[in-house]
């Protein structure tokens, strides 16, 4: 399984505009990351908190619904978040580079 995860990380990381890929466990701790340790830790804590708050919001608005994907766009980056029950995938990309394709 480790080989599959590593290959998937390489494939995602090689896409134009992708700056970083992080996989977190359900406690917000990094399992794999292409960023340095301190930035990974910061993303893990903040994104995990954001996902938990968003899950609560979605469930409060409609208890038959659940969060499946988030996209946060800023001036500099686009952060794509795919939460699962056990893991959290975060992809940070430069939207300007992606649009130039």
TrEMBL record:
Q: Tell me, what is an example of a GO biological process annotation in this record?
A: microtubule-based movement
Question: One MF term from GO for this chain?
Answer: dynein intermediate chain binding
Q: Cellular location of this protein?
A: Cytoplasm, Cytoskeleton
Provide a GO CC annotation, any one: cytoplasm
Q: Which UniProt keywords apply?
A: Cytoplasm, Cytoskeleton, Dynein, Microtubule, Motor protein, Transport
Spell out the Pfam families in the cross-references.
Robl_LC7
Please name the InterPro entries in this protein's record: DYNLRB1/2 (IPR016561), Roadblock/LAMTOR2_dom (IPR004942)
Return the similarity comment. Answer: Belongs to the GAMAD family.
Q: What does this protein do?
A: Acts as one of several non-catalytic accessory components of the cytoplasmic dynein 1 complex that are thought to be involved in linking dynein to cargos and to adapter proteins that regulate dynein function. Cytoplasmic dynein 1 acts as a motor for the intracellular retrograde motility of vesicles and organelles along microtubules.
The identity of this protein, by name, is Dynein light chain roadblock
Species this chain originates from: Mucor circinelloides f. circinelloides (strain 1006PhL) (Mucormycosis agent)
Lineage, broadest ranks: Eukaryota, Fungi, Fungi incertae sedis, Mucoromycota, Mucoromycotina
